[in-house]
Here is the input.
Amino acid sequence: MKSIFISSIVATLMLFIQSTWLSRGIIMGIIPDLALGVLLFCSFINREGQGIIASFLVGIAADILSASPLGYYAFLYTSCGYFATLISYVTDKDIFIVPFLLGAGATIIMALLSKVIYLLFSAGIHYYHIFSMEFGIELMLNGLFTILLFFLLSFIRQLFEHNPKKAMP
Amino acid sequence: MKTGSQIHGPARAMHKKAGICLVLSIIVLFISTKTIVKVPGFFNGYIIGGIQKGLSAIGSFFTGTIGAVSELRNIERDYEALLEKVQDYELKVRDYTALREENQRLKELLGLSTLPDAKKIAAHVIARDPTNMYSSLVIDKGYINGIRKYMPVVAYQNGVEGLVGKIIEVKASTSILQPLYDQRFFAAARLAKTRAEGMLNGQGFRDVPLNLLYVPKAEADLLKRGDIVVTSGLDEIFPSEIIIGRVEDWRLNELSSSLVISVQPAIDLSRIEYVFAIDIEPLSSPKKEAIQ
Here is the structure.
């Protein structure tokens, strides 16, 4: 419960930072998804699925902050949280490769699923243009910022862990 | 790498949680795309708006403080130069005021004043969409300030009044504005010179020009780069004759009966800070004099 609560609070704070301080973007107006990085970290270190629940809650918060229909980011973030938790079963955390692949992979998953949601629901749904330059930049930014967030959050890892003794991947 | 025996314990619980969350998301998404889900007004209207306003103010404070240090160096240098200029400008201002008054009188006489009876509500852009998928802006005025859904929003930049977008969600003290570069933004527009009509659509990114669709092919011969595009007012959301931008380029598709014109917005939305929501009710209600 503690890990879900703390992860949700930190990731929601990241959403606010994205919408205010980082609102002009970093490269070509593209905003890195810091909230996604926090959720991936929480999902990766909690193999019992606490990160998935936090992803769902933060997704709802993102839907409220954004112009997206309610449930849109909840679905995308939950899927990314699920993806990170599954990856934690087959590999261990390292400093660079795994966080980068998680960040970049989650961005690709969001892009693909956004297209699926667009086809299913259509009304007011936006989707990524996967072959655009903007998407490429976002992919790189998310990958790099996930590395940074994994590094920083590893110092306070116990706050994000459900049970520090059992949940070490 | 982990072995299969390590996986089975927590994995079942994890799959269960993921399944429940994903199904919940889909249900919520299904409901929200069909009906408007009302998040409790207090939470949605005050707390979120308050946090966004607070963070925006903190950001502005630090930016202002850091900027002020370097700015002081420049101010001293510029001060002397400006003193000389001020004297010249004082004379020019007198002439300008007289010309402005005359211009306003002439405009009223000709009936060309842009939105003369519309009430404009000034607002500050305090936040943007937290992700790149949507491109909405958050302004610091809500329904308590008179903002309503679908109000058109304009801004002034370099002496030009240009279209910015429309209000799509209104909360108590903040509102969400859909900018014209949003991929779901549509507006009835026309070329100011030839009066040919079309449908304006955003491309999803600030730096990518807008598309003016369904303009008849015959207009291609009359088009020139730099032609002004304005709202036509046919959609009954945007008043007519608000400047949208200038023609940048156009494409001719042989199989299609219409042109696709690229339009560069008149307002640079990456620099936008203040906007005006237009209450067009006074415009739509007929005047007594006109009826008589």
